[in-house]
């Protein structure tokens, strides 16, 4: 059990580091584009890591048990266990115990941690939408507001982002010509009483007109203030992955029913993969520890894809809710039974099967 737990943890950490690297790379590109501030990047990555663990823990458990058992075969420890009269059932029991640890961890993640992380991420993104585009300004880059109505560019700014030089602002208006403001200097001000935000331009001009048309107006000014309109976002609508299991269970929506089936299936899938790794890990001394990794991956990918596909069919009404994802799990159970019977015959049911028959 110690061998399996250590290998499982190592594989999961490696997979998590790889996935976090991808998430971090996408986040850094958004920071560079000015879509999100740099100070919230690590928070978003940490929150998304919780959701990643829901799928990485079953895969890490599966590969960890496979690699641990592969080492037993490579070092001939299985031969010693066979000589002492150990059966396949004796090997499945500690493996199932390790699998149950994985089931408990995944159940905690799917029922409590993952929905909380999704709600937290949703609230953070909502707060970012309420932030002014001015707070995200990066000198030398065009920054677009969250609603797409405003584009800002500054050549340089002060450290606290309250003073700017060589400013360009494009404001799109519904059913009206757009407005372009340019100024040599601009400053950011916020009314402490009302919370209104202003960008005060100095020594610039305003151009109103549609591109390609001669009907436009240019106004030069010494000082001009632009009010940032407030946007009432209201209460955010809970996403499917943000809902608690109780909320999903009480819902009559097929999409929510499919999500319930999915959250129940992930811990069950982890346990089945853990048990599958026992007969699948059998290797001859010449094959080595990693001999069955490719086959294990080829089994895991269709299994995971079938679960995802069945969830979509439930959401679309193609599969009845009472059928759920169980046919996919039954296929996996049949595969486990087939591999055990192929390896040791029906004797494993009587707990007498040889480990290396």
Main traits of this protein?
357 residues, alpha+beta, six-stranded antiparallel sheet, 8 helices, 54% helix
Report on the architecture of this protein.
With 357 residues, the chain is of the alpha+beta class. It has 2 domains: 2-129 and 241-350, no CATH class; 148-228, no CATH class. The chain has 8 helices and 6 strands, in the order H-H-H-H-E-E-E-E-E-E-H-H-H-H. It has a 6-stranded antiparallel β-sheet, with no helix packed on it. Helix 1 (2-33) runs antiparallel to helix 2, helix 2 (41-74) packs antiparallel against helix 4 (88-130) and helix 6 (254-280) packs parallel to helix 8 (326-344). The longest helix is centred in the N-terminal third of the chain and has 43 residues, at 88-130. The chain is elongated, with a radius of gyration of 29 Å. The two termini are 23 Å apart.
Tally of extended strands?
6
Structural class: alpha+beta
Q: How would you describe the shape?
A: elongated
Distance between the termini: 23 Å
Rg (C-alpha, Å): 29 Å
* Assembly type: single chain
Poorly predicted regions: none
Domain unit count: 2
- How would you state the average pLDDT, rounded? 81
What's the helix count? 8
β-strand percent reads 15-25%
Profile the largest sheet: 6 strands, antiparallel
Task: Give the helix proportion (percent range).
Answer: 40-55%
Strand order of the largest sheet: 1-2-3-4-5-6
The H/E string reads HHHHEEEEEEHHHH
């Amino acid at each position: 059990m110690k061998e399996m737990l250590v290998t499982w943890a190592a594989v999961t950490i490696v997979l998590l580091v790889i996935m976090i690297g991808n998430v971090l790379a996408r986040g850094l590109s958004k920071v560079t584009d000015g879509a999100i501030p740099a100070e919230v990047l690590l928070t978003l990555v940490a929150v998304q890591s919780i959701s990643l663990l829901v799928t990485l823990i079953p895969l890490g458990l599966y590969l960890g048990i496979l690699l641990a058992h592969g080492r037993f075969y490579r070092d001939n420890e299985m031969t010693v266990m066979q000589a002492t009269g150990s059966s396949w059932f004796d090997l499945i029991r500690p493996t199932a115990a390790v699998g149950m640890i994985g089931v408990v961890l995944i159940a905690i993640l799917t029922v409590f941690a993952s929905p909380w992380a999704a709600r937290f991420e949703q609230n953070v993104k909502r707060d970012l939408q309420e932030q002014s585009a001015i707070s995200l300004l990066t000198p030398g880059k065009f920054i677009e507001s969250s609603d797409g109505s405003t584009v800002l560019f500054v050549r340089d700014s002060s450290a606290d982002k309250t003073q700017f030089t060589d400013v360009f602002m494009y404001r799109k208006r519904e059913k009206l010509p757009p407005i372009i403001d340019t100024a040599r200097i601009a400053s950011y001000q916020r009314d402490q009483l009302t919370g209104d935000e202003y960008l005060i331009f100095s020594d610039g001009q305003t151009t109103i007109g549609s591109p390609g048309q001669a009907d436009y107006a240019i106004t030069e000014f010494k000082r001009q203030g632009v009010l940032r309109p407030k946007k009432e976002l209201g209460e955010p609508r809970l996403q499917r992955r943000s809902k608690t299991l109780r909320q999903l269970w009480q819902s009559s929506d097929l999409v929510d029913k499919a999500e319930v089936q999915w959250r129940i299936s992930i811990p069950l899938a982890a346990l089945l993969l853990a048990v599958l790794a026992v007969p699948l890990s059998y290797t001859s001394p010449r094959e080595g520890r990693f001999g069955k990794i490719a086959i294990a991956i080829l089994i895991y990918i269709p299994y995971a894809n079938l679960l995802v596909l069945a969830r979509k069919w439930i959401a679309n009404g193609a599969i009845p809710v009472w059928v759920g994802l169980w046919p996919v799990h039954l296929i996996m159970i049949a595969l486990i039974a087939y591999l055990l019977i192929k390896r040791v015959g029906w004797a494993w049911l009587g707990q007498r099967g040889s480990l290396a028959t």
